[in-house]
Amino acid sequence: MVNYQENQKDISLKVKEAKRLFILSCEIVVLSFLSILPATAATEEPVLSVVYGQENVNQWRGISDRLQTTGVKYCVISLNDVKSGADWGDRRVLFLPNVETLTPTQAIALEDWMSKGGRLIASGPVGSLSSPGVRQLLRSLLGGYWGFSLSDTEQIQAAKTRIPEWANQTGLFGKVRGGVVIPNDMGTESPAVWNSKDSPAAVVTTERSTFLGWRWGTDTASAAELDNAWLKTTINHYLTALAPSNRTKKIPGGSQSCSTTVAAAPLVQGSRGAEGQGSRGAGGQGGSSSPSLTPPKTATAPIPRPLPMVKPPSSQEAIDQLEQAVRLDVAPNSNEPIDNNQAIALQQELENLIGRVESAHLAVLADAANVGETISEGEGKQFSRNLNTPQSVKEQPTQLASTKLGALAISKDQVLAQARLIAKNLPQLIAQKNYALARQQWLIAKTTLWQQFPVDRKLAQPEIRAVWLDRGTIVRAGSKAGLAQIFDRLAQAGINTVFFETVNAGYPIYPSQVAKEQNPLIRGWNPLEEAVKLAHERDMELHAWVWTFAAGNQRHNEILNLNPNYPGPVLAAHPDWANYDNLGNMIPVGQTKPFFDPANPEVRQYLLKLYEEIVTKYKVDGLQLDYIRYPFQDPSAGRTYGYGKAARAQFQKLTGVDPVNISPSQADLWQKWTKFRTEQVDSFVAQVSQQLRQKQPNLILSVAVFPLPELERIQKIQQNWETWAKRGDVDLIVPMTYALDTSRFQRLAQPWIASKQLGATLLVPGIRLLSLPTIGAFDQLQLVRDLPVSGYALFAAENFNNDLQKLFSNTQGRIQSTTSEPIPLSQPFQTAAIRYTALQREWKFVFQNDQRPRPSQKISDFNNQAEVLRSALNQLAASPSASKLLVARASLTRFQSQFRVLMSQEIKSNSYQVKVWENRLVTIERLLRYGERRLQLRPL
Question: What is the 3-state secondary structure (H, E, C) of 206-243?
Answer without folding.
Answer: CCCEEEECCCCCCCCCCCHHHHHHHHHHHHHHHHHCCC
